[in-house]
Design goal:
This protein is an alpha+beta fold. It contains 18 helices and 16 strands. Helix content is 41%, strand content 17%.
Length: 472
């Protein structure tokens, strides 16, 4: 029995129409990126595991797809314990080592590479590796797929595209302002009116952790807080308790669970809450500058709001944090996000190089546009002229004509299979109809091409030059 075809969960095939619609989104985003001065780069689909591991927090590391080392790792029929023992990679007391070795440790011996989890960490590696060839501040954009071993669900895939824009080499808060404008520009061009750009600052989160006495558990605190919209205040409280954050500390942070009001009101509340934290107040000042500047400049269609629970659960953010949600009424996770990372390149040996960047979630944006009916009718690539194949004796003349047409940038092709019956001729005409082809050359009579215009059925005999002029 033949195997039933399938693809891995969390991946998708795309039809010609879907590809064209995705390309529309790509083109809009790319246009805005370049309009804002960003340059394109690309990085490999997989990196050394050491490049990626430890950069996304404990939860992120578990979602990294590792690649099995090539070659016969187990060396033929020998047990893998003996193979490892002979490799010299393990201690001499191997049996004790093996009995206590967890899956993660073992995987490090058999896998040295991994599919990229995002585009930001590979970009940081790129900057350090090519720093002598880069003019700073360096503004780059990148649109490539990433992979995560996540549980597939609506809007969450294991293979998906990210469209990133980053600036490294500048600590100016003007960059924070520009990224708000960039989000607004792209979503306005996509006619996605009413998106909400949520903004926070990691310094504020650090300040809150400081005043509640949980600075040593900042990561646990922010990871739990970031889940507020998914698991509610009770779920966040239980997760914080499970991580060793005290009930007294949680009581102090309780006001954040219902933090409402306009941006100015939220800033005022934060100044009071963080009055004893220098780092927290610095974050409030940064946030206030961005909010005030954006309000002065104005936005086209997006809404900007402070969200003090926004953490995004990533270890490398040090300043601004962004997340974009779809217009009200559309049930979808974030369609964009990012933030500032002042020390990300430090792990690759380049200190004091501040960076900030944002990402557009193309696949989720696609689903939102589809749900709201915001895609215009897609015109798929197709030939303007089709040469039917009812008589193979004329094919050489048809191929010469096709070559001449293509030289004039006229899309054309010949139906490849010759029709030997009326049924097969009807099949070719059906192909013309299904593809919406404008002109058809049915045959060659007396060295003239019989050209039919499909919209009105008009038919005439013409020379090659007349054919070219007509279809142009």
């Amino acid at each position: 029995m033949a195997q039933k075809p399938s693809i891995p969960k969390g991946t998708r095939d795309f039809s010609p129409t879907e590809v064209a619609q995705r390309n529309y989104i790509f083109n809009v985003i790319q246009s805005s990126f370049e309009n804002f001065g960003f340059q394109p780069i690309e990085t490999p689909s997989f990196e050394n595991s050491s490049t990626l591991m430890g950069k996304y927090g404990e939860e992120g590391d578990r979602l990294i797809f590792k690649i099995l080392n090539s070659g016969d790792f187990l060396k033929g029929t020998k047990p893998y314990r003996e193979a490892l023992k002979e490799s010299g990679l393990v201690p001499t007391n191997f049996d004790d080592f093996f009995m206590n070795m967890d899956a993660t440790t073992f995987s490090n011996y058999i896998s040295g590479k991994a599919l990229r989890y995002d585009l930001t960490v590979p970009f940081a590696r790129y900057v350090v590796q090519h720093q002598n060839d880069i003019s700073f501040p360096f503004k780059r954009y990148q649109m490539q797929p990433v992979w995560r071993a996540d549980r597939p669900q609506k809007g969450r895939f294991r293979e998906f595209y990210q469209c990133d824009a980053d600036v490294v080499g500048s600590k100016s808060l003007l960059q924070e302002v520009e990224f708000v404008q960039l989000y607004d520009d792209v979503f306005t061009k996509l006619k996605l009116v009413g998106t909400t750009i949520k903004l926070n600052n990691r310094k504020i989160l650090a300040g809150i952790a400081e005043i509640i006495g949980a600075s040593d558990k900042l990561i646990d605190f922010t990871v739990a807080l970031d889940k507020l919209d998914k698991i509610g205040s009770e779920g966040v409280t239980n997760e914080m308790l499970s991580k060793g954050i005290t009930e007294d500390a949680i009581d102090k942070v309780q006001p954040l669970f219902d933090f409402t009001g306009k941006n100015k009101e939220k800033l005022a509340q934060l100044k009071v809450m963080l009055a004893t934290s220098d780092e927290g107040l610095e974050g409030v000042d940064d946030l206030e500058f961005v909010i005030d500047t954006v309000e002065e400049l104005g936005l086209q269609s997006a809404n900007l709001t402070i969200d003090v629970t926004l953490a995004r659960g990533l270890n490398y953010y040090t300043g601004a944090i962004y997340e974009v949600s779809a217009p009200e009424g559309v049930k979808m996770g974030s369609i964009g996000g990012g933030g500032r990372y002042d020390d990300l390149t430090g792990v690759f040996g380049k200190d004091d190089l501040s960076g900030i960047g944002i990402s557009f979630g193309l696949d989720r944006i696609y689903l939102v546009l589809e749900e709201l009916g915001l895609f215009d009718e897609v015109i798929l690539p197709k030939p303007k002229v089709l040469f039917l194949n009812f008589d193979s004796e004329d094919n050489l003349s048809k191929l010469k004509a096709i070559k001449a047409l293509r030289a004039q940038n006229i899309k054309c092709e010949i139906y490849p299979d010759v029709a030997t019956s009326n049924k097969q001729q009807k099949k070719q005409w059906k192909y013309v109809s299904n593809r919406g082809i404008e002109f058809v050359v049915s045959k060659i009579e007396n060295n003239a091409f019989v050209l039919k215009k499909m919209s009105d059925g008009e038919q005439k005999n013409c020379s090659l030059s007349e054919l070219i002029n007509t279809v142009q």
